[in-house]
Amino acid sequence: MTTKKHGYLGNENLKASGIEIEFTKEQVKEYIKCSQDPVYFVEKYVKVVSLDEGLVPFDMYDYQKDIVDKVHNNRFVIAKLPRQSGKSTTIVSYILHYVLFNQSMNVAILANKQATAREILSRLKLAYEYLPLWLQQGIVEWNKGSIELENGSKIVASATSSSAIRGGSFNMIFLDEFAHVSSGIAEEFFSSVYPTITSGQSTKVLMVSTPNGLNLFYHYWRGATKEIGEEGKNEYVPIEVHWSQVPLYPGGPLRGEKWKEETIANTSEQQFQSEFECDFVGSQNTLISSLKLKSLAWVKPLERSNEGLSIYEEPREDRQYSCVVDTSRGQGLDYSAFVIIDVTETPYKVVAKYRNNIVSPLVYPTIIRSVCERYNKAFCLIEINDIGGQVADVLYQDLEYDHIYMTQNKGRKGQVVGGGFGGGGNQFGVRTTGPVKKLGCSVLKSLIEEDKLIVEDLDTINELTTFIAKKQSFEADDGHTDDLVMCLVLFAWLTRQDYFKEMMNTDVRHTIYGDEIKRIEDELLPDGFFTNNESLEVGEYDGEDRWFSL
């Protein structure tokens, strides 16, 4: 074998483009064998970094060999793998084989963060650097975020997003820790990019992750594990590895119960369930039972705006709707959120949701009014603990939206929803007190577990998986949010209010308004009054949910 004396940019471990190599007969045989058998290639020629031993040959475990085989022989693969199973290293090794022994292959390494994607690429580059020169392709480009080989193959590393690979043509896409990509980005990726990916005859898609709730990754995993012929079955070949299949250290015994106990002691039961048992509902003591959570199915919205509005059902003239509103300060922390619920009959159904963590409280009421107007002037229940009171005031006073539930404090009865007629102490909206939340959580559990409230929104379902018991109440698990769930909690509380039950009956609803109007007119205008120069009898009601215009 003869080569030039210099490699790529002075690195003698890398073959520069244009370097000519004369193969020996043995090297030709090895090259052919490696091209036909990726497992053989990885075990014999790929090196990895060991914490204890430094750079060593990659001696794959049986489950890692199985991963390589399945990725090699199938177009679509989804892998649910525990932490510390060497999943990224295994996939990187196969990608290396893929670009070396195939001409003009474009590969995208996508992760939840760009830094993570580039770190994965750096592992591939390290393995490449320690290949024999006769196995290497000449280097055309060697950057932090991409490499290009002389055979026309390219690899790019980026964060998972709809724009990451748009406009490109890719033969293989590796989605690392896909369950940890935010729901909105993951959905947008598949809706905008995925159709072009799957249009090819040989394109490979590899989705790998530890579970992280009932998100898009769970949706695809669930579809992959169904029996052929079942509704929702997809094309993905599933790969699952249990933590007990992973050795304690290279060449050592497999992990056992002692290791499990030590790991839980150093982390938590919940973390172990999620990261090692690969349980999609990793949080313990969730308000909704784990069995029910796993049965919840999400659907794609009919409409989705960049501002955070998702529409699942268009409004219908013959339906009644309620809106429940939660407000944040719009500082990128908690979310301002509201849900539109069809309350015409049971089961109730979430037909739209809004969720945004940067919207200003000054702008928020306009958005609420716009959506509520669309849904037949939906009646709003507004949470007023923090700045929600400001939102309620703007909505009513400035925007003149009067379909807002009012409450009164009735002493031992606590807050009671009413029409705001008569008596003092009326307020727009409800304060989330201990009793309100306790009742709301109890009722919400019943509504969902008894299929009396249909929730098909992915973000809401995700929040439900991490809405757990803490002290004497329920709230979001550490590192998670519960803004949408709290909207449902308040809605559940609302359904136990007598006024709400009466409002759901159209005839009763009109009777309530008519009676209240008659009572107040009797008190304030005993001799009748005029409107638009036409006389109306005291107590006459025009059939609309409004006062007469003076």
Structural write-up:
It is a single chain. This protein has 550 residues and is of the alpha/beta class. It has 2 domains: 184 residues, P-loop containing nucleotide triphosphate hydrolases (Rossmann fold), CATH 3.40.50; 210 residues, Nucleotidyltransferase, domain 5, CATH 3.30.420. It is 35% helix and 19% strand. It is built from 18 helices and 24 strands. The chain has an 8-stranded mixed beta sheet with strand order 5-6-7-4-8-9-3-10, sandwiched between helices. Strands 11, 12, 13, 14, 15, 16 and 20 form a 7-stranded mixed beta sheet that branches. A 3-stranded antiparallel beta sheet has the order 18-17-19. Helix 3 packs across helix 4, helix 4 packs across helix 5 and helix 14 packs across helix 16. The longest helix has 19 residues. The chain is elongated and about 90 Å long. The N and C termini lie far apart (100 Å).
| E-strand count | 24
What's the CATH first level of the largest domain? Alpha Beta
Q: Per DSSP, what share of the residues sits in E-state strands of 2 or more residues?
A: 15-25%
What's the shape?
elongated
The total count of helices amounts to: 18
Largest sheet: 8 strands, mixed
Fold-level CATH name of the largest domain:
Nucleotidyltransferase, domain 5
Which assembly state applies to the chains in this document?
single chain
The CATH architecture of the largest domain: 2-Layer Sandwich
Average pLDDT reading: 84
Class from secondary-structure proportions:
alpha/beta
Specify Rg, calculated over alpha carbons: 30 Å
Strand order of the largest sheet: 5-6-7-4-8-9-3-10
Distance between the termini: 100 Å
List the domain count as a whole number: 2
State the share of residues found in helices, binned by percent.
25-40%
Query: Could you list the spans in which at least 5 consecutive residues all have pLDDT below 50?
Result: 506-512, 525-550
